[in-house]
Write a structure and sequence with these properties.
14 helices; Rossmann fold; 19 strands; binds cytidine-5'-monophosphate
Length: 403
């Protein structure tokens, strides 16, 4: 069963060429089990007919605030209360401006004012219109709200209907339906205990020096929050990072890979899921000096030996949990990720292309592809929090499929 089953989704369609894709979105939401009602602005009706959306949603399409017949059926306040989630797709620059200004000059803006349901916008417009200062200020204004802050889904970058290339494409209908499902995925991990390793490890050279890496821990911490929000009990085994412990998460702070392994082994028997998001140092110093090494010779050689592979150790347990690893690759991402999935006996692997400059270790954003068995799922560029929710939703779905 999908998390959208019996959920009531109000889909607002505004005027833009991407409106033709809204028909497919209605189908995707319906297929996932949602009840869908469609509200169109006047401009949207220039792009796609209400009849198409009525046929696909199985409900009359709402258009006017001042239509006595429609108001006698389901009035605008009733409609605003009916929705569990409102999605505006496509959301035009004009609609976003009216929303930011708090206007209620048509049915759709009025519903946004009247409804307490979470609101998601899927912007779609020409790239210059998206980049325009007014549009960006309107988006920032909406995101700075303390209450009723909308979710902004997209836009994606790429080729546009007008021939331009850049940001402003509406996210694909299936991606929007997946994001909608994520909104209701909370509770998907209720009753489960999940252990996450996060951050770097530090391998001592002597009492004052160490070998480490640039991992910020942001992805692992975002996963801990997303898993907690999905109802799991979360144990976070963390290397040294500059992040506060997330609310309602149990953190065990460690330094070296050996300490991380010991902490994981002490707790793994309680866990049904393990995610290895830590950037564990591959090697440690063969013999750590007991005292600070003096600067004397012109050259010094450190002998390094392999660290234990924490995730592979867990995946080799007879009673192993569902194990999810990460693969940071610079090329041939799928091949290396699938190889790691098999070699380490993992159930799922999260691969990211670290050759890209816009994502990675210290960034707030990420884009990943999940691989398991013969399947894969891409989670496009988004904040690490959004990507984390997508990963947790995918894990929950896999667990439901696989007892
Ligand atoms: O082999 P590689 O380091 O690329 O594998 C990455 C995955 O394995 C990550 O999930 C990481 O947390 C985990 N790992 C581990 N222990 C190690 C090395 C990697 O748990 N010693």
């Amino acid at each position: 069963m999908s998390s959208l089953t019996n959920k009531r989704v109000l889909l607002g369609i505004t005027g833009g060429i991407a409106a033709y894709k809204s028909a497919e979105l209605v189908r995707a939401l319906k297929t996932a089990g949602a009840e869908v009602r469609v509200v169109m602005t006047s401009a949207a009706r220039e792009f796609i007919t209400p009849l198409t959306l009525q046929a696909l949603s199985g409900n009359p399409v709402h258009h006017s605030l001042l239509d006595p017949e429609a108001e006698a059926g389901m009035g605008h306040i009733e409609l605003a209360r009916w929705a569990d989630l409102m999605i505006i797709a496509p959301a035009s620059a004009d609609f976003i401006a009216r929303l930011a200004a708090g206007m209620g000059n048509d049915l759709l803006t009025t519903l946004c004012l009247a409804s307490n349901a979470p609101l998601a916008l899927a912007p779609a417009m020409n790239q210059a219109m998206w980049r325009d200062t007014a549009t960006q200020q309107n988006i920032q204004q909406l995101l700075s709200r303390s209450e009723k802050k909308p979710l902004i889904w997209g836009p994606a970058a790429g080729e546009q209907a007008c021939g331009d290339v850049g940001p402003g494409r509406m996210l694909e209908p299936l991606e929007l339906a997946r994001l909608a499902a994520e909104q209701f995925a909370s509770g998907a991990l209720a009753g489960k205990t999940l252990l996450i390793t996060a951050g770097p490890t530090r391998e001592a050279i002597d009492p004052v020096r160490y070998i480490s890496n640039h991992s910020s821990g942001k992805m692992g911490y975002a996963l801990a929050e997303a898993a907690r929000d999905a109802g799991a009990r979360v144990i976070l085994v963390s290397g040294p990072v500059n992040l506060p412990c997330p609310r309602a998460v149990e953190r065990i702070s460690v330094s070296s890979a050996d300490e991380m392994l010991a902490a994981v082994q002490a707790r793994i028997n309680d866990c049904q899921i393990m995610i290895g998001a830590a950037a564990v140092a591959d090697y440690k110093v063969a013999s750590v000096a007991g005292q600070k090494i003096k600067k004397s010779a012109d050259e010094m050689i450190l002998t390094l030996i392999k660290n234990p592979d924490i995730i592979a150790t867990v995946a080799a347990l007879p009673n192993k949990p569902f194990v999810v690893g990460f693969a940071a690759e610079t090329n041939d991402v799928e091949n290396y990720a699938r190889d790691k999935l098999k070699r380490k006996n993992l159930d799922m692997i999260v691969a990211n292309d670290v050759s890209r400059s816009d994502i990675g270790f210290n960034s707030d954003d990420n884009a990943v592809t999940l691989f398991w068995a013969e399947q894969q799922q891409a989670l496009p560029l988004a904040s690490k929090h959004q990507v984390a929710r997508g990963i947790i939703a995918a894990i929950a779905t896999r667990l439901q499929e696989k007892p």
